[in-house]
Amino acid sequence: MYDYMSKYRLEGKIAFIVGGLGLIGKEVSTAIASAGAKTLVLDVNEEVGEALVVALKGRGFDAIYRNLDCAEVAKLDESLSILIDEFGCPDAFINCAFPYTKDWGDSSFKNITLESLQRNVDIHMNSFAWLAKRVADVMVNNANGGSIIQFGSTYGVVGQDLSIYEGTDMGEGESMAYAVIKGGITNLTRLMSSYYGRYNIRVNTLCPGGISGHVAGVSDKQDPLFVKNYCKKTPLKRMGNPEEIATVALFLASDAASYITGATIMVDGGWTAI
Length: 274
What we know:
Blueprint: E1 14-18, H1 25-34, E2 38-43, H2 46-58, E3 63-67, H3 76-87, E4 92-95, H4 114-142, E5 146-151, H5 176-196, E6 201-208, H6 224-233, H7 242-253, E7 264-267
Parallel strand pairs: 1-2, 1-4, 2-3, 4-5, 5-6, 6-7
């Protein structure tokens, strides 16, 4: 009899989680570690990272923290090489980082500057693209396949519904930089899946919808009216939870998703269905 549940397990595998300390990233790190993978949590806050690792090890999971700053684009090659030399080729590479500049909250069409657009594209889209390409090449040389999961967004697939921002403290809500970045990440996934599929390397984009918690680069608390408007439009009538995103990342990282590549997986409560 086919052992279905074993396909979700990650024992004997190595996973790199870039942005593994964020609102969603922390749950992704926990989910991957709980499935048995040696989990390398990569982010910029050493104190928070070490605390998470202690908590995960306390539950019997194999987790390690290392510093990786996506904003230091020129150092990405060196940083990745050091990690691979120390831990080996990852079987699963998940990028849920969200690097942004201090003026991210002013990335509307009215306020954005060329300098800000260029910088955000560089530290976010370009870092995602380059890390994925470099990891894929390492997986090719390792000849054991692998899974690469890029975090996109609903707004990398559809335009923003500006009506949900009306009357909130979030302005008109639109972000030129965000659309460019997430759209680029999503389409690169399609090309990478086409090219690297021959090496049994799967590349997918996971697109979360609205998640309960802070709005990165904008505020530490979501505007109640925005939440109400968002939930009203969403078929499931609520925002998502980080755990609901992490379970999908776990699925895509596992052999349960062995025939899924080039996909844009919407985890948005039905937002993009209507």
